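Blackboard transcription, Thursday session:
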Amino acid sequence: MGDTGRAVARNPKEIVARGYDAIALRYAEWAGQVKSPALEWLRDLDARLSDGSDVLELGCGRGVPGTRELARRHRVTGVDISAVQIELARHHVPEASFVHADAAELDVAAGSLDAVVALYFFGHVPVDEQRDLIGRIAVWLDDGGLLLATFGAGAAGEDVDPDWLGAPMFFASLEGSSYIPLLRDSGLEPLRDEVLVQHEPGHGDVAFNWVLARA
Amino acid sequence: MEIRKVGVVGLGTMGAGIAQVSVQSGSETVGREVSAELGERGRATVDRYLTRGVEKGRLSQGERDAALARLTLTRELSDFADCDLVIEAALEELELKREIFAELDRVTRPDAVLATNTSALSVSEIAQATKRPERVVGMHFFNPAPVLPLVEIVRTSESSDEAVDAAYAWAERAGKQPVRCNDTPGFIVNRILIPLLNDCVRVLDEAHVQPEDMDKAMTNGAGWPMGPCALIDLIGVDVHVHASCALHDKLGEARMAPPERLVQMQQAGKLGRKSGEGFYKY
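(Written on the board underneath:)
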């Protein structure tokens, strides 16, 4: 992969952070055109939670529509590695709390969360950090707590798209079939899991593994 | 002020149609999409309709070539720096439009007129994202924009006469039939048409009328150019339901809320012409 390959090896997180800083507006316009099943899954999660649940959202982006939907009834903390996205989220969803951080660096008390949401998030986490992070999420969740997440549904790998909506972007995934066993090994039992294909304007059809799991 | 150069934000169905109107009016036009692929798709839409116009004898090959040559593509809003008018046709999401207008405010000339093609959101709330709300107006085109003559020129309480007049004059020069209205929910047409179409759908169920008979009744009895069911199929059931919900949220009248039948059609994927089935099969 030449120069981009070395950039991946050097700092994928910086690529993600700088990328989402740079493309904030274009990403918002583009993502809004994607017919994503996110709201339906978020509403399913919401219906399973009691009022005022503690919810952590990883990769919350600009906070709409996901964080805002959850913040209607719950105490939501959104985390994102992009400073620009967090700034937008604070503006759009003042009722939620936001932290500009790398999810891998978070210090969360064991059993302190009722739900963790990670939509279109793991696709930007380096492969060698994904197993550990899933394990840590399982620890953060209270007994019966819920994880709603999307995972890659294809082959394992890491890649940098040099021009993703105008900036380099890092993508990663474990083998799609490895996530469900990994969740079970971590003590998270899938309640719903479906591979869903979404059409991404200008990019084509992309499959994600949607999972709602219970600790 | 005279408008010579126009920017269009978003080259989806509405944006590409507006860009076509603009290039055909003789204005240099910058079309902005989020990626090169989507920009080219927008240009292809304009090209397709212009070429069809040549085939049908509505314009010459030379006019088509000249019009298409007036369209340049970008994915940077900063390329609107020398535009006199920017028309935003992005998604109907208030936060997004406010982010776009805040950025347009930073990158365009202070005297440029900034217009939104919103159909359901408050133009005033969008304008407040800028430091020049007096230069912000609504320009509500109807789908398909190159075909339907009406453009609602929407004035907020802060819009200047000059900005409203400039937008009106440009629309008129582009061969449209602009009307002036204020920033009230649904402006003129949707405020009337949405509850009216909802009434028609409710009558289907309340009076046990078939869509074919409803359309026959309204075209032959009320002189409508198209029946309400065929019209909803053309608009798109999802688009109509979304607009209904927005109007109902703002005005609270029961007639504004989408009828249950339309909500069920939307959930079943029966969206009208674009999905192959709505009230009718296509």
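Lecturer's comment: Strands of chain B lie at 5-9, 28-32, 71-74, 85-88, 113-116, 136-141, 150-155, 177-182.
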